[in-house]
Every structure is written in structure tokens, then in C-alpha cells.
Amino acid sequence: MLIVNEVFCVFCKKSSKDDYFLRKTGEIHGPVKCLDKNKVVEYFFHFYCAFWAPMVTYTFDEEKNTDDFTKIKETIALAKKLPCHVCKQRGAALGCWYKKCKKSFHYLCAKQAKCFFDHPNVFCEAHLDLSENKKNYKRKNSVDSFSTVEN
Ligand SMILES: [Zn+2]
Ligand SMILES: [Zn+2]
Ligand SMILES: [Zn+2]
Fold first, then answer.
1. Tens digits of per-residue pLDDT, 107-123?
2. Which of 4, 5, 48, 111 is deepest in the core (most CB within 10 A)?
3. Residues 6+ apart with CB under 8 A from 129
4. What is the reported pTM?
């Protein structure tokens, strides 16, 4: 996908022209058309900013060479209300796996906060130990082979 104009990630708010963020958070995807106060608004997002959001499932259709992020609209609507535990800005789509934990993060903020990533789950540092008991949580899908951005 080629996006010529400058757009901003609906989650981390960084510009599509910010190369550092593109390297760290993946290509900009979009637009996703959402209804906001009866107006259609187009949103863009970095791949990893959406990929690690707990509601989102990423699928890739090899035949059609198209991909899809399910529940992306719901995630955008939710993330707009959620402040990030690290930078305090809204758009924090990544919630800690532990349901009682209220922490949410942006993708790079979660990395900074040393969250543990085990797709599709993210664990904050305080609840990292829960990730060890794998029986306690189920994987929503299997994209284990999918490469993640290395820091
Ligand atoms: Zn982003
Ligand atoms: Zn943040
Ligand atoms: Zn937590």
C-alpha cells in the first residue's frame, strides 16, 4: 500500500513520515472508515499498533494478496478513550492480558515498559508471571510464525 500524503496513526499519533516509527511499528495501514459524530472519518494506523491490540485478529489472504484487521473499528473507538500507562496519551490499544489490570499501552510504550509479548497476549511487567502458566490463557489464533519487530 502506498500512502503519499502524510497521515497519523490513530493509536500512537505518529506521522506516516516518521521513519523511526515506521521501522519500529510497521507500515501504515488504512484508511479505515469510521462514523464519528455522524461524520465519516478515515483512520490510519501502524501495523504493530493494531496487531497487538487484544481484540484485533490479523488475517492475510495470499490468493487475493489482501489483509484484514478484524474488530479494528471497535479497537479504534475503545483506544480513543484509553490513556497509555507510559506516555499518558490516549489511543492505547494494548491492554494487559490480566483482566483486572487496567493498564493500557501504545505498542512502543509497551516495549519501553518491558511488557511481555506473546501473541495475541500482552502482559505488563507486574503480571508477567501469569504468562508462564500457559494453561491459564488461550491463544486466539496462531500467527506464531509471524515475525515481530526486534528492538
Ligand atoms: Zn502507531
Ligand atoms: Zn504511550
Ligand atoms: Zn497487568
1. 999 999 999 999 889 99
2. 48
3. none
4. 0.83
Q: Determine the Cα–Cα distance for residues 82 and 104; give it in Å rounded to an integer.
A: 7
Which ligand is closest in space to the CA of residue 83? 2
Q: What is the mean pLDDT of residues 24-29?
A: 94
Domain 19-136 is in which class?
A: alpha beta
Q: How far is the CA of 12 from the centre of ligand 2 (A)?
A: 7
d(CA 102, CA 135): 22
Ion ligand 2: residue ranges with CB closer than 5 A? 84, 86-87, 106, 109
Look at residue 1 and tell me whether its pLDDT is greater than 60.
Answer: no
pLDDT in tens, 10-19: 999 999 999 9
Place of cell 515481530: 148
Please report which residue ranges of the chain form alpha helices under DSSP H: 19-25, 47-51, 72-79, 107-112
